């Protein structure tokens, strides 16, 4: 990353595992002060990273995080809204209760809305900033039997991100979306293990069936670092004319351009 980014302050939500950890590590390695949030502390501390425990499904968390960041560092330059999870059971509309819908929307949509609302005033005052909202390919290719409420929440995140990008561009703030496909994360591994147990098949068989079902031309899941590579570029000065865009990183699974 360009040295101009050194000394800046970044927030990565859900930054202790998987994609979030890969992003946080890359930004730290570029000389950026990184704040990470999650419900549980990281297994090991990393130089250049400051941890704030938080459950972003809870409305009050965003203001608490924003207050601590601005109180400690006095600025915020980069926001990576990575918090998200497919929390609901599979099986389609009849299996989803109001609680399932609410949990998915709080975690996957409102968490980002609240964080941005709490920190954008500081970016506007600085007249600079970058926001990357992590969505999913399932927002454009929803699977009714597995991702109905999750996909809906992330589709809302996509629409919100485009509107926000248009609103804050005049303040020197850029907003983009990165939509990963299948990524080899701890959550994905847990999902595959659980599906294998419930289906009485091996994890390898489930892994192959998921790849086949989503028709991934590259034929494998992404590594978290491959998602982080794009995010790191988007927050850098090299991407200063890019805003309001949704980037798919899915190994070619999305069947349209």
From TrEMBL:
Superkingdom of source: Bacteria
A Pfam match: adh_short_C2
Entry-linked InterPro entries: NAD(P)-bd_dom_sf (IPR036291), SDR (IPR050259), SDR_fam (IPR002347)
SUPFAM superfamilies to which the protein is assigned, alphabetical: NAD(P)-binding Rossmann-fold domains
Record family assignment: Belongs to the short-chain dehydrogenases/reductases (SDR) family.
Protein name, per record: NAD(P)-dependent dehydrogenase, short-chain alcohol dehydrogenase family
Species whose genome carries this gene: Chryseobacterium soldanellicola
